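stage 2 :: seqdesign
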């Protein structure tokens, strides 16, 4: 088996008497996107800083790009690129000058530096703005420049800490395209995000950090299977129709159906009945047939499959019991 691009075992970190990481294990196969999710303050940035050599852990072992963090942090630094939450872009100089500065830092020969700069500015759609001071760039342009600067040294492993926070939807989608392109070129991406959709869109594997540990880890599909929540919602415009449907369902005794107490006064939400369902065609057909047979006609019929939001809320709720991460399923 080939060595993961990034691996960590038993990572621990405390600030004073506050334990932030309490034994974090993770492994990221080369050429994949790994997304670390967690609520504010869960310790995502702390993990990124440790893995990228910017911060020492109290305990644990880390290997990145085949190098051991304890014995060879310099080699790790040479192999990775890091884009943090706070931009490395200098607003006083132009985008092009920012890039050239990075090329100099990487000791690229002048000509090679110019080539790489031109190629990256083109790829990140910054050619027109290249000669303008970076302070005049929009948030999305600054973020693109930031990542372009990270790529000057040609890293095969990059850490992106919340790369799309604060970007509008168009810029966010643009960033996703950039990340996909990087990965199709074989780069390994370690991504932290607060946007579940982002992890769902991009990540081969997702880990949820909660209470200092990885509460769950796996593909988006696998994580969604961890939480119940798939259901069909029937909404009625009129209380009578709603009551009739509720009693028919009660009589049919559908298991786990969330029904209101008999005689309760239906408010806006109470005109909605939820029927647990896996959302398969077979189940939907059976339900529709049954509704027809009972003469029930809902004003709205929607299928709700569990999404990463459901997973996130279930796993990061106060008092949620962390799942034991299972063996890799890919
Ligand atoms: N230098 C420090 N000294 C003391 N406490 C710190 C320090 N850095 C981080 N912390 C605390 O450690 C915890 C984890 O912080 P971290 O920035 O890693 O979280 P995060 O998951 O990245 O959060 P966010 O999503 O808000 O960026 C937080 O409670 C934070 O206040």
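stage 2 :: out
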């Amino acid at each position: 088996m080939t060595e993961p691009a990034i691996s960590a075992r038993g990572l621990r970190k405390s600030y004073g008497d506050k334990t932030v990481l309490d034994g974090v294990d993770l492994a990221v196969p080369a050429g994949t996107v790994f997304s670390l999710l967690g609520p504010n303050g869960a310790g995502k940035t702390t993990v990124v800083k440790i893995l990228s050599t910017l911060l020492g852990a109290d305990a644990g072992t880390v290997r990145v790009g085949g190098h051991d963090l304890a014995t060879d942090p310099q080699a790790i630094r040479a192999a990775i690129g890091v884009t943090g939450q706070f931009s490395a872009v200098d607003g006083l100089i132009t985008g092009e000058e920012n890039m050239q500065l990075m090329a100099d830092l990487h000791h690229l020969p002048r000509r090679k530096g110019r080539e790489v700069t031109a190629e990256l500015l083109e790829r990140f759609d910054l050619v027109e703005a290249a000669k303008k001071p970076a302070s005049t760039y929009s948030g999305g342009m600054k973020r693109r420049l930031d990542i372009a600067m990270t790529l000057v040294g040609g890293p095969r492993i990059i850490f992106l800490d919340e790369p799309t926070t604060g970007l509008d939807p168009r810029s966010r989608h643009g960033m996703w395209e950039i990340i996909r392109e990087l990965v199709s070129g074989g780069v390994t991406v370690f991504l932290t995000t607060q946007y579940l959709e982002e992890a769902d869109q991009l990540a081969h594997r997702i880990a949820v950090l909660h209470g200092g540990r990885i509460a769950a880890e796996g593909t988006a599909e696998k994580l969604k299977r961890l939480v119940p929540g798939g259901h069909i919602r029937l909404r009625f415009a009129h209380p009578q129709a709603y009551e009739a449907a509720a009693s028919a369902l009660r009589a049919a005794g559908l298991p786990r159906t969330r029904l209101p107490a008999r005689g309760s006064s239906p408010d806006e939400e109470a005109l909605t009945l939820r029927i647990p369902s896996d959302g398969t065609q077979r189940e939907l057909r059976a339900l529709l047939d049954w509704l027809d047979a009972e003469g029930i006609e809902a004003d709205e019929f929607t299928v709700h499959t569990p999404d990463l939001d459901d997973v996130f809320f279930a796993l990061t709720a106060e008092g949620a019991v962390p799942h034991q991460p299972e063996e890799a399923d890919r």
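stage 3 :: structure notes
- The chain has two domains: 6-89+137-225+312-316, 231-305.
- The chain has a mean pLDDT of 86.
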